[in-house]
Amino acid sequence: MSDIHNSVCELSVQVETIRIVQLTDTHLKTHDGGKLLGLDTDYSLQAVVDLANKEYPKPDFVLGTGDLADSGAGDAYRRLIGYFDQVSPEHFWLPGNHDLRDVMIEVGGAERVPGEIRVGAWQIVMLDSQLPGEVGGHLGRPELQRLEECLNAGAEAQLHTLICLHHQPVPIGCEWLDEQMVSDADSFFEILGRYPRVRGLLWGHVHQELDKYREDLRLLCTPSTCVQFLPGQQDFAVDTQAPGYRWLELDADGAIRTDVSRAVSQIFPVDREASGYL
Ligand SMILES: [Fe+2]
């Protein structure tokens, strides 16, 4: 495990409530204007960025929860910086199955891919659920050990915790996507069960919205800024819903307020007949 994985970014935000925009699964192609399932992912990301700036201006920072580039291209991450900078100069990334962590760090700098962010009364743990060469997610013993170390330190400092990762740690009800959920989720939840200050889990990957509870733990996933997947499906199916983002407000008492917003006023043509996606 490298030091980069363990890096802690401390942000000095002098506010009671931390305001965040999550942008996920941007899938930027190697070249500007490249398309995923018929959709120009630069165009849709710009539309979502414009929407976030209009509705939820000047957040404290942006969280990018994976599949930021569609094939790990350096130019995709360079363009990503330009888009995210329009929302906030502070943005943090974690890798999804389409990303290349080394390229993310090379282009964005190690400080953009931290192991943990400490801000006000909160710690935000950024987990790497990518298994190189695989579509599905896995945390593995070293990452789970790092999580536990973070949670111990956070509990000692009496911080509330939000955990971010790319893959879903619970089934979301799409059979084809749930084959890709975090394969060692049982070990993950066994650890979380010992840390009641963990308030929420936040992920991407499934290109659809979810907001529910597992006992007191808030479970949140967020639409992609490009193509959407139809909820409740056994096999791959594209949804016609618009791209979107999530805003989150983390209060000093541990409460989380959050919602999703979509760019419904624009048309985003998608190839609905597509039979697959990796
Ligand atoms: Fe994705």
Automatic annotation (TrEMBL):
Coiled coil: none annotated. GO terms for molecular function: 3',5'-cyclic-AMP phosphodiesterase activity. Its EC number is 3.1.4.53. Keywords: Hydrolase, Iron, Metal-binding. It is an enzyme of class 3 (hydrolase). It comes from the Bacteria. Residues 18-208 form the Calcineurin-like phosphoesterase domain. Belongs to the cyclic nucleotide phosphodiesterase class-III family. This is 3',5'-cyclic-AMP phosphodiesterase. It comes from Congregibacter variabilis.
